[in-house]
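Sample pair:
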Amino acid sequence: MAGYLRNNLGQGLLTSPFKAPLKAWALVPVLAIVSVSVGFEAGLLKVGWLDSKIAPVLPLILFVFPSLLEEAFFRGILIPRDILESGVHAAARAIGTSTVAFVVWHPVNALAFNPTAISLFLDPWFLVIVCALGATCGYSYVISRSIWVPVIIHWVTVMVWVLFLGGRNLALEF
């Protein structure tokens, strides 16, 4: 297990996102379109700046949790870093499995640890956005082999949501 972690998450942490091929970012526009379309239609998003004393420190908080910690587990551990060597179908299965686990984690997290998030984390439209984020991050990790690419995608997504689109800062509601 230690060897697996060292070869996957460890090497993924050491791989620069700046060396990632452009196609590692290819699903980001799709994620944005899905998130904005679903989010506004379902009433999950509303334009507006977060008016909070903690707004200046939120980028750092949101970088660590959920972005870095969730991506380290759902991509860096659940998806073998060299999965493409096993073929496109194996990579698609790994991304799919990681995405399903990521989606399921959200309701489990709310039910077990954060009851204030239950209504949001059980909302099917929110889970559609989570699924799009999970697939995008999984794909970006498989293509880039760097954990930093999905961390950046996850982080920017959550920051935009919390700071500019009326999202809740669930990390501070525990």
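The chain has seven helices and no strands.
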